[in-house]
Structure formats: C-alpha cells, structure tokens
Amino acid sequence: MRYGHFDDRTREYVIERPDTPLPWINYLGTEEYFGLISNTAGGYSFYRDARLRRLTRYRYNNAPLDVGGRYLYLRDDATGDYWSPSWQPTRRDLDDYECRHGLSYTRIASARRGIRAETLYFVPLGETLEVWRATVTNERDTPAELSLFSAVEFCLWDAQDDATNFQRNFSTGQVEVDGGVIYHKTEYRERRDHFAYFACSQMPDGFDTQREAFLGAYRGWDRPAAVERGAASGSVAHGWSPIGSHHVRLSLGPGESREVIFVLGYAENPRGDKFDPPGSQTLNKRHVRPVVEHWLRPETVAKGFAALTAHWDRLLGALRVSTPDTDTDRMVNIWNAYQCLVTFNLSRSASSFESGIGRGMGFRDSNQDLLGFVHILPERARERILDIAATQMATGGAYHQYQPLTKRGNNDIGDGFNDDPLWLVLGVSAYLKETGDQTILDEPVPFDNEPGSEVSLYEHLRRSLQYTLDRLGPHGLPLIGRADWNDCLNLNCFSDTSGEPFQTTQNATGGQAESVFIAGQFVLAAKELAGIAALRGRPEEEAEYRAAAEKMTGTVTEHGWDGAWFRRAYDFYGYPIGSGENDEGQIFVEPQGMCVLAGVGREDGLAARALDSVAERLATPHGIVLQQPAYSSYRIELGEISTYPPGYKENAGIFCHTNPWIMIAEAIVGNGDRAFDYYRRINPSAREQLSEVHRCEPYVYAQMIAGRDAPTHGEAKNSWLTGAAAWNFVAVTQWILGLRPELSGLRVDPVLPAAWPGFTATRAYRGATYEITVRKPAGATGRVTRLLVDGERVEGTLVPPAPAGAVVRVEAVVEGA
Length: 817
What we know:
Strand order of the largest sheet: 1-2-9-10-11-12-19-16-15-14
Number of strands: 42
Low-confidence stretches: 495-509
Shape: globular
Mean pLDDT: 94
Strand content: 15-25%
CATH topology of the domain at 11-313: Beta-galactosidase, Chain A, domain 5
CATH superfamily of the domain at 11-313: Glycoside hydrolase, family 65, N-terminal domain
Structural class: alpha+beta
Number of helices: 20
Helix content: 25-40%
Distance between the termini: 40 Å
Radius of gyration: 28 Å
C-alpha cells in the first residue's frame, strides 16, 4: 500500500493522504536554524542546539503522535465551520489534500467546501528564521468571509527544563506585542541576549499569547476557543504557557486569492551592543525590525525560495548517476544525498525519535556522517572535523557526545566507548581523499576544548590509534570498555572479586572484555593512518602503523575466527561472544563487515567464508539482522542488548547502518549481485510499496527494521538521523558503482550486478568534473579491464587528479567473465 509517490522531476515526495502510518517528516534549514515538520505541520524549531535553543514546544510520546507544530486554522465566518489546512490538529475532513516534502522545504495544500489553502514552509539561506507563505483561494461562485489564525507554542528555550521545571516556568513566560510582531522574551530578563519573534505580513485583527486564552479551559489544539468563536482575546502572557497567534480576516471574491506571510525567527543582541539598564525589560529590537519587514514581503519570499532551490541544484550536482535501476538513481541523486546532509547537520540529536534533549552531536556519529557528506561541502566537513577533534581528550579518548551550541563534551556521557577515537582517523582520511587538503593536519586543535592544550590534528590521529594500543586485553584484542559501535553490548557487567553481578559505569580502562569489532576497525584505521603518514613524508611512522595493522590482523585470525565467521567479542571472564560455543547470539554481523573492510581474511579465504555465513544465517527479505539466534531472556553479563525483545533493535533487529558494511565487503570480494541485492532490500524507495509494513518514510533510511524474530518483521523505526544514510551512500557510490576517492586520485572500480550493461555518472572531484561511462556486457561479471581517460589508456583503475576547472572524460570497460 502506498500513501504517496515520488516526483523525481521536482525532487519531492508527494503524500496524498494525511493519515500516514507514522508522521512522515522533513527538515527545514541548512545552516544554524532548523526545524522538523511533518506532513500534517507537526514539529518544532530551534537555533543550532535542539536542547538549549528550542523555539517552539513539542510533546513526544503524545496521542496522537504528531501534536504541536506550525498550525494554521481557517474559519468560514458565515457558518462558523473551521478546519486545519494541514489536517492536524482539527482532523476535519478535507475535500483534497497534498503534502510535498522537498529539499529543505515543505508545501501543504488542501481544500474544504470551496476554500483552498496552500502553505510553503522554508528557512531562507543565511537567516535564522522560517517563512510560512500561506495562499488562500476562494473557489466558490460567491464571496467568502474568512478568518485565518496562526499558532505556535513557545518553548522556554532549554527543552529539558521546559519539560520538567514547572514550579519555576509557569511563572516566567513573557511576551511583548508590537504591531503585527509577537516577541517571546522569556529568559531575556535573565540573559538579555536572545529572543524569538513571530510576525505577520498583514496587520492582525487580533492576537493571543496566552495558551489557555487561545485554547480555552479543558480544550486542546483540535478545537481552540478563539477559532471557534472567530475572535482572538488579545491576551498577553505573564507566566504559564506563552504562545503566538495572529487573527487575520480575509474577504475574498469568487476566484480571488490572498497571500499572508508569517515569519518565526530567532535573534540575538549584536555583540558589543549596549544592553538596556539593569531591571529593564525592554527588548533590543532595532536590529530585528528590518529583517522582519524584509521577509514579510512577497517578492523577498519568492527570491529566497528560488535561492534555496538553486542552492540544492549546486549541492546535488556534485554527483549524478544514471543506472538501469530507478530506485538507485532516486536515492543517489536526491534522497540519500539529502539525508546525508541533514544527518551531518544534526547528528542524532533531533528527530521524531530523539527528543533533542538526551543527545547532542555524536563523536562516532559525526565522523561517520562525514563519509557521505564530504564530497558535497568539503569546507563544512573541515570545520566539523576540527570541532569534533577539539572534544577529544589528551589520552586519545573521546566524549561520546557534545552539545552543538557549546561544543563541549557531555560530562554525563563521557569516554569509554572504545571505538570512538578510531572513527576520527577514518573521518579525516575521507576528507583528505576527497580534497587533497593536507593543511588540515597541521591545524592546532585543543584537547577537551581547553586553551593551551593545542597540538596538531595529526597528533590527535596518532593518539586515537595509541588509545587502542594502550588498552589491549588478555588475547591481545582491544578492550571494549563501556561498549563499541554496538552501544548495547555491555560486557563488563560482572565483578571478578565477589562473583555477584552488578551494573558498572564501565569506564574506558575497566574490565577485561575485548572486542573483535574494534580489532577490525583498528586494522582499517592503522592502514589509513599509514597512508596519511606516507603522504606526510614520515616513512618510520608509516612502517609503525602498517606493522601494528599486521600484528592485529594476526591476532584477529588467531583469536577472532570461529571456524565459519569472525567472533564478536570476549566477555568479562574471557568467554567468546558470537561463537558456535554460545547457545544464542552465535554470529554477529558487525565483525563480518568490518574485518573484511579492513582486509582481514581476504587472502586466506576467511572473508568469503564469513560472508557466506552472513547470507546463510543473517540475511532476511527485509535486510540483514544484527545477530542470530536472538537472545530470548535478559543476560546481565551481556548488558542492554538482551533487554530488547527478540527481533528489535540490537537484539537481532536489522540495523540499516551495518547492512552496507556487508554490501561493501561483498563488493570487495567481487560479488556484485549479492552486494546489490542487499542494497535493494533496505533501499527506502524500493520499499515504498511496502509502506503499510515499513511504516516509516519511504524516502529516507531508518535506523532499524524489525528482524525475523519480531512479530512485526519488516517494520522500520527511528527514521532520518542514522549512520545508515552515510554508509549506504558510500556502499552504493564508492563500492557498487565504484567511484571511490583515494589519496592519490579517483578510483573507478565498479562491482555491478550481472544484469546491468553499465551506467554513467558525473562526479566533481578536487575542483574538476569527471564524466564517467562504464560499459559491460549484460549478464557478465568482473572488474574493469580497460580504462580510458580523455581517450588515453591508463593502467589500472586510478584516475589521477586533474587541474581545477577541467572536464575529464573517463571510460571504463568491464569485459566480463
């Protein structure tokens, strides 16, 4: 069953009925101001930090799920009939409805009883505000007297405090109304540096800023008293729950349209601006008024939206492909690339499944997000790398997360995830391969953002590797610490003195549990750092890292191989996890992917055998499950992984993040059919026809899909902000299509499905444009046998970097087997 369709020409997903299985959302904003918006206008907005600078309130775990957002109400003043053009929150029947989610904008249109309304929501480039452009049309044969009401509920900035500290917050909410602008100034009295505003292009016929005055006692957003009676009360909030609502009367003749623009924004006092005298509550609004007036003009909005569209034209022009598979083209050219950019901006911090309170920017997460983003805006990737590295500790360890506003590590989620430091090496390596910019390695970067502790970024990378070498366990494998990539595999949960089970804080050095996954990751990172050392002209360090990689490879082969697959780990007491010796959890997907990526087992056949085991034991029609058999009961020695019911999340769920590791591994060993088959199983576009099962948005990846042990096998959860976005983009573009940046050039090494006759692509790389054609006989398999660059034969599959501005024509031929 489908709830909409892709419009590839306009780069939009068109939702044709509002009652999607879950709220299907989009993101507004590309720089500092962001918002979530659903197909029924639910969601919230924030400036930079979803916790500390939340503009509008949103209630998670609500019923209905999608309550709270950017609401408009229309009222027929002749009959008293009223409705929401976005369906929510009134949920009155609409004669027709359409939501178009585009690239950083959403357009919702509907009609009821001869009145049509269309609202465009977007955040203009370079601004800290969002625009709602509402167009109301009278399609009747008679005049219409209408009322249009806007409504947002202000959050008192710190979303955690807003949701918990009622004894204080019910007394602090404050607004100020000046003409058609409602200013939310809670905290201005205390901090005197930031405020929000909500403006209307037409002088309102009324307003409300107190929630209860607008809604009425014992009422919800589905039937506000002000809308029902057709008049606002002019309430001014003093404490309780401040909102912003404008009431605009519209008199429309037959066929007449009227455009009303609303602007919701964030402002700070200019640095160095003289504050008002102590005790004054007067807002410093003079620098905001010109901005508000500018964006309330229809011509400004039109130009701003055109600029946003052109911005996405430029970004998505970095890579364009044309393959025999529509779903591949759609994801690579539009939606997967778009999701990579959104995920890069927000890490895992703010979605329908992350409240923006509990998580900031992830150290591991943000480094992985770089992999799918760096080719589009490398200058922003550079900035992000330096931000991430500055949260690293002098030991080489890392805060697992940091707040985007303060760029400080979260003390309650410190180090101990022992895979974290190695991701910095992989992220920096990806940047260097894409840009060739070695200057970043010399940038002075502090530890823990402490002034005076600066060392070069290259030294940060060295300490990342040393962090692992300083923490090896009894088998010579890396200690897992609190956890590795699998946050829920907590193996240091037993006391070796009393024998009594207990949950520990599991710091970086505690416990003896070891990770085969980190071992594989270390081999990969050590090889990457060796390549960087060679680039820097440091042969001794290059040899050191290659030797470390070789030694760890031997350790994995000796202690990490279980006979038909790679083991997952060793627990606190040295018992294997992910082994045929176990009754449950015998095989895990993560080490099978990571070890093959690192080159472990490629030459002796272990890699191919491990991947066959994945196909035999872990692959399902909906994707590859995390492990098998699922854990049937709680096991304290394993930690959180066993708290989930079988088939969900880390307990044998299908993680769309780890699936591409297997796709890449299959491509590495030359199995194009299996790699592409795995790709399509979790490709959101390919799953669109299963929307009633999948339930999440069919245009972006979800974090996980319920596994074969779950009663809801195939159901997705936690959409949008997931490492699955970057890794699936890397898997399909760099390994299946084979367009892979390396330190010394662009590799063209596709591993295609046998049925394909080839594909074409345009790829921007280091300032040059590469027009690539890959040809092979349909039905054939194999690797590139002939490479032509501008008509000249080139040995191997590496295309050297061309001068900036050059257009390079590349022809790759797979003669097949």
